[in-house]
Amino acid sequence: MSGFSNCILPRHIIDGIKAGSFKNITVLTGAGISTGAGIPDFRSPGGMYDTLRPELITATETQRRQMKHDPTQVVFFDLFRENQFPYLEVRRPFIMGTAEKKWKATLSHFFLRLLHDKGLLRRLYTQNIDGLDFQLDLPEQKVVHVHGTIGTASCEFCSAPYPAEEFREAVRTSIKNIYDQNDCEAPRESKNILCKRCRTPGVKPDTVMYGRNLPASFFTNCDKDFPQCSDLLIVIGTSLTVSPANSLVERISKEAPRIVVNTLPVGEELGLDYGSNSSRDFLLSGESDQVLFDLCIELGWVDDMCAFSDQMAPQSQQILHNYSARTQTNQSPPS
Ligand code: OAD
User: Fold this and answer.
1) 190-228 pLDDT per residue, tens
2) Lowest CB count within 10 Å: 18, 127, 135, 240, which one?
């Protein structure tokens, strides 16, 4: 079987996972785990920050200059306090898309489900707000939404909840579509969405903005999971640029291996060492779906993974189809 796999993890780690020697695997995910579902990440070419066009956003010239200079400003509380439209206009397609269940979890997401099913997952820390991890049906206490979720909404100023359905409808009818000016469902100009309690326009999805506190569950679970309790860290599809989520790579015990799945070598400034002498850090370089499927082949988990095929994003399903076509060709008798 492993003849079809390009997995370069050392044998003792693969055998350790297979034999259940790592019983407390902790996973940190970022936007790269969802790109296979069709959701762009933040910092790659074509990502949210790369494609930001401040000139289309409802804002003052000074605010536009700030966003041009530093696109992350759209998710800063300081800007949101002054003007709520940059955040809501940039996030509009994402708010509408998640409400319409436009995206399906990827093969990489289902790898986490397999870890859980096999009793190996200690915790998933996800920086993603897309909610695709909810499609895995993991127990609530297993998942920490480090940067909140786009699935519910409340007032950023007074914390009053805002009904999710009503919020989506308000976004549809009150916030202009800066990505598609021919969208006839969207208004030409954005209008405020007022909090039902404090009557300020602070209503937004329950995501964490820069300059605001992370959920308490991040810190309480970190205290439980690190340094000793986690015995293996798998980091998937994150640039590891944002603190404190990126601190997991430093919090874990020095004995625990760290596997990074990414198209680029990330986190070297945090002490990850992919050099040939490193016995602890491993970069599995490539698209996470393919890389993790190769790992499944090595682990003998292909059938387990295929069982989720119907629930996966089309691009992930294609990997399973390609594999099954290759194995069938190989098994057919020579003519
Ligand atoms: P980034 O956009 O910073 O990083 C995504 C990473 O995933 C990059 O390192 C890519 O190389 C990698 N990547 C993309 N597609 C991939 C694929 N198919 N397979 C493997 N790797 C892939 O996204 P995050 O690290 O998640 O915070 O960003 C962290 C935080 O920064 C976000 O939660 C958000 C943002 O500002 C807030 O909004 C508070």
Assistant:
1) 999 999 999 999 999 999 999 999 999 999 999 999 999
2) 18
Query: How close is the Cα of 35 to the center of ligand 1, in Å?
Result: 9
Q: Looking at ligand 1, which atom is closest to the CA of residue 240?
A: 25
> Which of 150, 208, 242, 315 has the most ligand 1 atoms within 8 A of CB, as the residue to mutate?
242
pLDDT band at 1 (very low <50, low <70, confident <90, very high): very low
Q: Is 315 in the pocket of ligand 1 (CB under 6 A)?
A: no
Known catalytic residues are 147
Position with higher pLDDT, 329 vs 77: 77
Percent of the chain with pLDDT over 90: 91
> In the predicted model, is pLDDT for residue 276 greater than 80?
no
How, if at all, do strands 25-29 and 148-155 pair? unpaired
In terms of phi and psi (left: phi > 0; alpha: psi -120 to 50; beta: otherwise), the region of 63 is: alpha
Per-residue pLDDT of 127-181, as tens digits, reads 999 999 999 999 999 999 999 999 999 999 999 999 999 999 999 999 999 999 8
In contact, 123 and 27? CB cutoff 8 Å: yes
Both tokens of 247, joined, read 């601190």
**Ligand 1: does its nearest atom lie under 6 Å from the Cβ of 214?**
no
For Cα atoms 20, 23, 26, give the angle at the middle one, nearest 5 degrees: 130
Position in ligand 1 atom list of the atom nearest CA 47: 2
Rounded distance, CA 190 to CA 177, Å? 9
- Whether the ω angle into residue 227 lies within 30 degrees of 0, i.e. cis, is yes
Sequence-separated (6 or more) residues with CB below 8 Å from residue 96:
168, 171, 172
Q: Which of 41, 126, 247, 284 has most ligand 1 atoms within 8 Å of its beta carbon, as the pocket-test mutant?
A: 41
- Please classify residue 1 by burial: count the beta carbons closer than 10 Å to its beta carbon, then call 0-12 exposed, 13-18 middle and 19+ buried: exposed
Residue for token digits 């599809």? 237
